[in-house]
Structures are given as C-alpha cells and as structure tokens.
TrEMBL record:
Gene3D superfamilies: 3.40.190.290, Winged helix-like DNA-binding domain superfamily/Winged helix DNA-binding domain (1.10.10.10). Keywords: DNA-binding, Transcription, Transcription regulation. InterPro entries: LysR_HTH_N, LysR_subst-bd, WH-like_DNA-bd_sf, WH_DNA-bd_sf. This is LysR family transcriptional regulator. Belongs to the LysR transcriptional regulatory family. It comes from Solemya pervernicosa gill symbiont.
Length: 307
C-alpha cells in the first residue's frame, strides 16, 4: 500500500500544474524548500522520479504523469464527498472556483461578500484575466463558473445572464467634446482613441457596432487594462470606451465625463458561463442562483448617465 499523505499529493499536484516549485509554494502557502522536501519524500515513498529537469524547465516523467492523473481523480472524488457530506447536513460549503474577465473585479467582490455572509463556509477563489485567457480556462474546464460579457460562439456551454452593463465613451472634463451633444461617429473617428488590446470583450463590442454603422476607428494607442486607459484619458492623451462599472468612482468625483456619442451607451449583459453538462458543486449552484436573484447596492442599480 502506498503510504503517501494527502498533503504530499497536494504539493505534488501544485508543482505539476504550475511546472514550478516556486509558483507551487506561492499557491499553497509553503516555502520553496518545504515544497521540495515534500516532493522528495513522495518520490522516496514511491521509489520513482516524478520530475525531470531540462534546462530551466521541469517536466513530468511517465510516472509523474500517471500520478498527476490519479491525483486529479482522487481530489475530484474527495470534493464530491465533501459536497455530499455538506448536503446531508443541509450546508452550502466547500470550494467555489470562479474565473472572470478583468472588468468584473469592479462588482464581483460585492456579490461574493453578500454571498459569503449567507454561506460563510464556502471558500472562494477568483481568477481575473483578459477574455482570451478566461476562454482558455473554460476550454480546460479549470473552474466552476466563468464571468464574462462577450460570449464565445459555441454550442458546448450554458450561459446565465445576471447583470446589465453599459459601455460608454469618456473623456477628461476639459476635452473639447466634453460639453458637446450628439457627437457623430465621424467626429469620434478624428479623435485620439485609446483602446483595449485586440480581442478584448470591450473592444469587440464597440467595434461590432462601428462595423454595423460603416465606421472604422484606428486606435491611437492600445493598452492592456481599463485602469491604464483611465489614467491616459485623465492625463489628457485622448478618449476611451469602458464599462460604467470601471468608471463609477471617476465619474462621481468629476475626474472623467461621459461623452454624448452616436450609438452609445451600448447596453450589454454579464453572464455566468459553464461547460454544458458540467456537474456544478453545491456551492457553485448556490452562487449561480444567488447572482441571478440578488439586489446588490451600488451594482444592480444602474449608474445615472444623465448628470
């Protein structure tokens, strides 16, 4: 009988997933030497090498690959057992793994905070990244739920709308267009537009609208985050387009203003997404139902764009 401990297997799994002892140590909150010792002891127990080093990279050996698959199955079964145990006691508990596009960071913690007040034994983990990376995680089925606006066109997912959003064009309060009404898209095309990177959900949304209107706008500058775009606009470099969720503080304090542009604001909806046929954990199912029903102050009430 193999006498490896669950802790040793969890440490091994973390190293195998991240292909790095250092990264694994950060994720599971151990020191790097501690991780190395646990893996070494596991190899001694099994009598095999689980990793091999080629250059600066580590790779799983054949035995390591076999153990990695076994760990995945083992911990999945343990998670199911924990859910069943909690269900017997009528409790919503256990891990809740979420992945979301970056703009969701402005409202998703509000949902999580309210949800955890009702279910304090749920342990959430939130990964925020750009749309491309979130879809990669969806493809690999790495999480329970994926929070996004611009949905991939595919048949193997289920989508659950839960929150309205608006995409607006904004500028510095002293920008020449700040006080103008009925700004045309042709006028907008002559401005220095600061855009998100190609493929981002926000950019895909407004470029689709522009294409329908027969207008093309070449970005003056591309930046990889909404925060960077806001800073550039507040510095007077140009104008931008973002969700009102990411602009709430700056609009309320007068550091930025919404422009009255043809075709804007663009209304859209946030969705919770998962692979079709996926068995959601009790915690994930409860959170999905919660976000579709909850009224969250400052989130579910739309921002007044007429001020």
């Amino acid at each position: 009988m193999i006498r490896a401990t669950l802790q040793q297997l969890r440490v091994f799994q973390a190293v195998a997933e991240h292909r790095s002892f250092t990264k694994a140590a950060e994720v599971i909150h151990l020191t790097q030497p501690g991780v190395s010792i646990q893996v070494k002891r596991l190899e001694e127990i099994l009598g095999v090498s689980l990793f091999e080093k080629v250059g600066n990279q580590i790779y799983l050996t054949a035995e390591g690959k076999a153990l990695f698959a076994t760990c995945h199955d083992l911990f999945e079964r343990l998670a199911v057992f924990e859910e069943e145990l909690a269900s017997i006691h009528g409790e919503v508990a256990g891990p809740l793994n979420l992945a979301a596009v970056t703009t969701a960071k402005y409202f998703l913690p509000n949902y999580l905070g309210a949800f955890l007040r009702q279910h304090p034994n749920v342990v959430p983990q939130l990964k925020a990244s750009n749309r491309e990376r979130i879809i990669e995680r969806l493809d690999a089925n790495e999480d329970d739920l994926y929070i996004m606006v611009t949905l991939p066109q595919r048949d193997d997912i289920e989508t659950h709308p839960f929150l309205d959003d608006h995409l607006v064009v904004f500028a510095h309060p002293e920008h020449p267009l700040a006080k103008k009404k009925n700004i045309t898209l042709e006028q907008l095309s002559k401005e220095r537009v600061i855009a998100r990177e190609a493929g981002s959900g926000i950019r895909l949304t407004y470029e689709r609208m522009l294409k329908e209107k027969g207008v093309s706008i070449e970005p003056y500058m591309e930046l990889g985050s909404g925060e960077a775009i806001k800073q550039a606009v507040m510095s007077g470099i140009g104008i931008g387009a973002l969700s009102t969720f990411s602009l709430k503080l700056e609009l309320e304090t007068g550091r930025l203003v919404v422009l009255d542009v043809e075709g804007f604001p663009i209304s859209r909806r946030w969705h919770a997404v998962h692979r079709r046929g996926k068995r959601l954990s009790r915690a994930a199912q409860a959170f999905l139902e919660f976000i579709q029903e909850a009224e969250i102050p400052g989130v579910t009430q739309p921002l007044d764009l007429d001020d």
